[in-house]
Amino acid sequence: MKLGSRWSVGGAARAGGPARRLAKAACGALVGLLLGTAIPNGPARAEDKPILQVTPAPPQVDTDMLVVTGGFYDFNLKDNESVEFGLEYRSDYQLFIVKPFVGASVNTDGSLYGYAGILSDLVLFDRLVLTPSFAAGAWKQGNSSAKDLGYWLEFRSQIELTAHLGGGMRAGAYFNHVSNAGLGDTNPGVEVIGATFIVPLRTLF
Q1: By its UniProt entry, which InterPro entries does this protein fall under (predicted)?
Q2: Enclosing domain of residue 112
Q3: The model's pTM
Q4: 112, HSE (Cβ side, Cα atoms, 13 Å)
Q5: Which residue in 7, 112, 167, 203 is a FRET match for 150, CA 20 to 30 A apart?
Q6: Would you say 171 and 198 are in contact if contact means Cβ atoms under 8 Å apart?
């Protein structure tokens, strides 16, 4: 089969292939996990920790992290749907309540995005972590079916909710928006929703 044919991984994902079904199943499982861990066990006690704890971060958050993500690209408009995969390094260096991170993503239409930014880990119920973040980076369009974001410089704003799994690992879901803030002739933007898995680097090396 020729590499230039219409069949591709992205086409399989858009047609409801195994990758898309697996991603949907993973997102469903993570929603159940998050709902289950968000409900405190037993009656409230006066000595219970506050719902929101910004700083200092607990040990399971205050460490270098490796993050793996997978999600649905352009899921809401469905004009240029694909599956996106990403990898991030999140530093344990903290200035006030923000920490730096770098990452890269690729979707099944071949578009690439490398970025760097800042985030803040907000601990909820001592079990969940809400992580807003902002990043900027270089974007490159993939094949002819890939969505054109209008400019090489793109900005990403994201909200992520994860639950502790033990051993410092977390899993959850995220939603982000990527756009060029009007720097290009066009600025269609794109939204991505997906699942995330976070593991401390110290457990890998």
Answers
A1: Lipid-A_deacylase-rel
A2: 10-38+58-203
A3: 0.73
A4: 3
A5: 7
A6: yes
